[in-house]
Specification:
The complex is a heterotrimer. Chain A is an alpha/beta fold. Chain A contains 9 helices and 12 strands. Chain A has a domain at 2-61 and 155-247: P-loop containing nucleotide triphosphate hydrolases (Rossmann fold). Chain B contains 14 helices and no strands. Chain B has helices at 2-25, 33-41, 47-81, 93-107, 116-136, 141-165, 169-179, 188-206, 209-215, 219-224, 235-254, 260-272, 276-300, 309-331. Classes of the chains: A alpha/beta, B mainly alpha, C alpha/beta.
């Protein structure tokens, strides 16, 4: 339900994105994978409406993104950035309730909205609901950002490295959560570096290299050659997925 | 939580009412309040009526408006720039107002009427605000910070130059005293001059409350939550114009009163709950309370040398600030 | 609200046009150092309800001792109208809100510009005398003043010695001011006029000394130590001007136009005599 066609993005002298075309269906978790500098974050930002593309179109549920008002966009797309800012010492529940801002509810009304409670439960933060957000650990803050994104209850969730800061247990629980959300019919787009998690939990993978979308395929379609050409590393296949093994070219 | 907020705001309103009462009832001259009130309402020009209606009343109203505007803009700027050191003077608009007033003083046209000096200040503030907006363009918070700092230094330099060129030593002394800030001998005319800027500015700043909440998670997330930060109708423009109008008008009439915008948000943030939008009303009320209180102290201490209100706010504000720094250090955060 | 303001304005206008009724005991408030001192000399002391705080400051006020026993008011509007004055004397630029408020409650207000020549002094004396209700005292004072002025004045010669008036902070007394007129009547030329120094305010020491004035007149005004006053004791000045070439005039004599200003004329005449004796006529 999210389609991008021939996107490019040029800011000043820098070409952030040369040509990206892909479809991100509803009910699927799509992993955006590729080396650093491939343009994955840029593509995600364009889809979130943060960066204006130089050419190309983005269609959300059939509507062009550019035609939506900021509020309409906010109710359709939830975005989680890579860098989590330091939170002020507000209670966890209040920060999570900030996701209700696009609905114009009053502050107290938003705090007690059932969507916030659900979001906190899904991310396992109910026990911490009253604690000051400034005192959370790195993993807990990542989950709080996710809770905030979930409380908006948008059909699309765009996450830039949602699990990078999490320990294996929490990373796995978040990936399971994303799969469950996709099963409800949402469209999840995830920029992810962990190949194993990507190949295990994503329904579709979009590979990017040098500002271009190289190909879109299900994890089962991956081969060692494809991965080597995109990442420049040799890989080993294990039972359920792929693990990077070594550099493709010997270090000098 | 909700009751706590009601207590805070209610308490501040009660303080304002109490201090306003003190301001009106008590001063250098004791007289019967009710009689003076009757005379004033009847339009009579006895000394008591004039003191009450045209000297104490405008002074009280100005303290509320100026203190409130300074407190509110401090809270808004600290929330927007996510910087605890932000204060209303940061944007350079108060520097522009001071420069405008000083120029009017220097050229001598201030003698033409009582309204000329504050009008000069207002003109200076508006010019500075326009320059600021042009300088910032489509830039973000960091550009705003830098542009404001540049404008502040520029207006300060020009003001220093004008003070330098003033021929009479007495005139430059007068201007410097004015710059330090004072509410003494302000009239209803000053209240009328300040009113439009304060009302409009306060409304603009208040409209940015929800955006400030969203900004606690960074500019990117705030944008994706549906708030337009840049552009003519964006949050940044509303904040810049709001603070410029309110603070510029206030400085044009009362001179540059420091510390209120910096300290009041810090004092009340813990009580108001750290959510930026919830700090706005208490900051306005707290600023009004602080300035009303400082004005009462000024009148208490009235010996032959007038104690500057900026000195009193600084003496109250600086130790509080010290305390907050020590608290911050101990807790490792706010 | 606007109707009320209009009524206020009209009332105030009327008060200025109609003569104030003569009362038995007038209450006089003065807001300015110059009007303070004039009222101390011309009014009944019992009628003075308040002087400005500067009246007691001996560095600027000649009559500071006399003012010690007089009531003093800080010149805020509330103080002024709280004193219920019938007559308010002020300078042109001071306490404008207080003056406006005084007009509103119906007091008779007299504003005096600063005196810029000795000829202004009799005019101002008469104005104040009439305002405080004792024109006969004013006439007496003016007569005495004119007499003394005639005695002290010297005719001007094109080769009179050149004097420079050096004030605190390096300000130099310019043309068309009271010190300038005092110099002229004492038979001295003002360096500012001779050298064509039109720049108002500070003149660098170099420029001053390059013109080689004959007499340094130091305008002592400050109480206590200040950098501004210290400039008058600059060692370069001491080197350039020997004892005979320097005279100190207390600023209180010519800050305001008073009969006492003639003391300054006297002091300068004596300094001029001393100069001519040592140097011979130039």
């Amino acid at each position: 339900m999210l389609t991008v066609t021939a996107l490019s993005c040029q800011i000043g002298q820098n070409t952030l994105l040369r040509s990206a075309s892909a479809t991100f269906p509803a009910g699927c978790v799509t992993g955006l994978i590729g080396p650093n500098g491939a343009g994955k974050s840029t593509l995600l930002r364009i889809m979130a409406g943060l960066t204006v593309p130089t050419t190309g179109t983005v269609l959300v549920q059939g509507h062009p993104l550019a035609a939506l008002t900021p509020m309409e966009r906010a109710r359709l797309l939830a975005y989680m950035p890579q860098d989590i800012p330091p939170f002020p010492p507000m209670p966890v529940r209040e920060i999570a309730s900030l996701g209700r801002l696009p609905y114009g509810e009053g502050a107290s009304q938003a705090e007690h909205h059932p969507a916030v409670g659900r979001a906190l439960a899904l991310t396992g933060l109910q026990a911490l609901a009253g604690r000051a957000a400034a005192q959370l650990s790195g993993g807990e803050r990542a989950r709080l950002m996710l809770a905030r994104a979930l409380s908006t209850e948008t059909p699309v969730l765009l996450a830039d490295e949602a699990v990078a800061a999490l320990d294996p247990a929490h990373a796995l629980s978040v990936m399971h959560l994303l799969r469950a959300l996709a099963a409800e019919g949402r469209c999840i787009v995830l920029v992810i570096h962990d190949l194993l998690l990507a190949t295990r939990f994503c329904d579709q993978l979009v590979l990017m290299k040098d500002g271009e979308t190289v190909r879109s395929l299900p994890p089962s379609g991956l081969t060692e050659d494809i991965l080597q050409s995109v990442y420049g590393v040799t890989t080993r296949r294990i039972e359920q997925g792929w693990v990077p093994w070594d550099l493709a070219k010997a270090p000098r | 939580m909700k009751t706590r907020r009601w207590i805070l705001n209610g308490g501040l309103v009660a303080c304002i009412i109490a201090l306003s009462g003190v301001s009106l009832l008590w001063g250098e001259h004791a007289f019967s309040f009710t009689q003076a009130l009757r005379e004033w309402l009847a339009g009579q020009h006895t000394a008591e009526a004039v003191i009450l209606g045209e000297l104490r009343l405008p002074r009280m109203l100005l303290a509320i408006m100026v203190g409130g505007s300074l407190g509110l803009s401090g809270a808004v700027l600290q929330g927007y720039l996510r910087n605890p050191l932000a204060d209303p003077g940061l944007l350079g608009v108060s520097g522009g107002a001071a420069l405008g007033a000083v120029c009017v003083f220097y050229t001598g046209i201030a003698q033409l009427g009582l309204a000329i000096l504050p009008l000069g200040g207002l003109a200076g503030a508006l010019v500075a605000a326009v320059l600021l907006v042009m300088l910032v363009g489509r830039g973000g918070a960091l550009v705003l910070l830098l542009a404001g700092a540049a404008l502040s230094s520029f207006t300060a330099a020009l003001t220093a130059m004008v003070l330098n060129l003033v021929p009479s030593p007495y005139a430059s002394f007068e201007i410097m005293r004015w710059l330090m800030g004072s509410l003494t001998d302000r009239t209803m005319l000053d209240v009328l001059l300040v009113l439009p800027g304060v009302v409009l500015g306060t409304l603009l700043m208040a409209s940015s409350a929800r955006a400030l909440d969203a900004l606690t998670m960074g500019e990117d997330v705030a944008t994706t939550l549906g708030f337009q930060l840049k552009g003519i109708s964006g949050v940044q423009m509303r904040i810049v114009m709001g603070t410029s109008l309110a603070v510029g008008s206030c400085v044009a009439v009362s001179g540059a009163i420091g510390f209120v915008g910096l300290v009041v948000p810090h004092l009340l943030r813990g009580l108001a709950g750290h959510r930026p939008s919830r700090l706005l009303l208490p900051a306005f009320l707290g600023g009004a309370t602080l300035l009303l209180g400082a004005d009462v102290v000024v009148r208490l201490a009235a010996t032959h040398k007038e104690l500057q209100i900026g000195v009193v706010t600084a003496l109250i504000g600086a130790p509080v600030f010290f305390h907050r720094v020590i608290q911050f250090r101990k807790r490792g955060g706010f | 609200m606007y109707q009320w303001l209009l009524r206020l304005g009209l009332y105030g206008l009327l008060c200025m046009v109609l003569p104030a009724p003569v009362k038995a005991a007038t209450r006089i408030v003065s807001l300015n150092l110059c009007t303070d001192q004039l009222s101390l000399m011309l009014a009944d002391l019992a009628e003075i309800a308040g002087l400005s705080p500067l009246a007691r400051d001996c560095s600027g006020s000649v009559l500071c001792q006399k003012a010690q026993d007089m009531p003093v008011l800080a010149p805020t509007a509330e103080n002024v109208i709280g004193a219920h004055p019938d007559v308010v004397l002020a300078g042109q630029f001071t306490a404008r809100v207080a003056v406006k408020a005084a007009r509103e409650i119906g007091a008779h207000v007299l504003t005096l510009p600063p005196a810029s020549s000795l000829a202004d002094i009799p005019v101002q004396i008469m104005q104040v005398a009439q305002a405080v209700g004792h024109p006969e005292r004013g006439r007496q004072m003016v007569e005495a003043f004119q007499k003394r002025l005639a005695e002290l004045s010297l005719a001007r010669h094109p080769d009179d010695p050149v004097a420079v008036v050096y004030e605190a902070n390096g300000f130099v007394g310019g043309s068309n001011s009271l010190p300038d007129d005092v110099l002229a009547h004492a038979g001295l030329r003002n360096l500012s006029t001779v050298a064509g120094i039109t720049a108002a305010g500070r003149v660098p020491l170099e420029t001053l000394l390059a013109q080689q004035p004959d007499l340094l007149v130091r305008d002592r005004s400050g109480q206590g130590y200040s950098l501004a006053q210290a400039m008058l004791d600059n060692p370069v000045l001491k080197q350039f001007f020997s004892k005979k070439h320097v005279v100190d005039i207390p600023a209180s004599l010519w800050l305001c136009g008073l009969p006492q200003t003639l003391d300054a004329v006297d002091l300068l005449r004596q300094a001029r005599e001393g100069l001519i004796q040592t140097e011979g006529t130039r």
